[in-house]
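Q: What structure does this chain adopt?
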Amino acid sequence: MKSLKPRLKLSRGEERQNTDMTYLIVTIKQIKDNEAFQNYARLAKPLIERHGGQYLAIVRDPEVRDGEWPFVRTVVVGFPSAEMARGWYGSAEYREIIPLRQRGIDANIVMVSDLAELPVAGYEPPEKANA
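A:
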């Protein structure tokens, strides 16, 4: 069975299957200043990549199957580890552009860990299930 885990691009075109991902989920409630938001997005992308992160999804209109989704945009970024995600968010370069983000958008930002890191009844990571 093929693993559903994303492949992260590394330097010089290398890729590897990731086993312990951390995901950064951004749900944007409102774009307050589009110019500030666009500037923030332009500056954030290379910082995310410099810290090992990769955009996995950017969605304006997700397919809601149940309930409501009150967000104008959803962004998912994958990092190889929680330490790398924390390193990005805590970096001096990123801290400098947080006011630009806050001026441009009203958003929630959360980090979630891969299921392989958390015990979930009845769940076995694909790597163990196929071993």
